[in-house]
Amino acid sequence: MIGRFLAFVLGTLLGVFLVLKVRDLLRRATPEAVAERVGERVTQAQAGLGERVAEFTETFTTAMHEREAELREALGMDEGETEAAAEAGAVGEPRARRAAGR
Q1: Where are the stretches annotated Disordered (predicted)?
Q2: pTM across the whole model
Q3: Are 58 and 64 a contacting pair, CB within 8 Å?
């Protein structure tokens, strides 16, 4: 008798547990719930994207300046020479000629 009662109680508990789990799964599968989860993930991705872009830009700029310094050193140039050439019109002159069609 006690064995049957125990089996009945365990069966009832298992049944209630399964009903609650199935109800939760069905609620999470509704279009509104799916749209809400997708919206949350998009928001998180957008927040992370801004940080990643800023980090990439900083890394890229640093690497660009390092490489430029290496090239200037290898070519024996310094900042003063480049600025003087730019003022004289030597830098960018081919681009101006190309734009003029020469």
Answers
A1: 78-102
A2: 0.39
A3: no
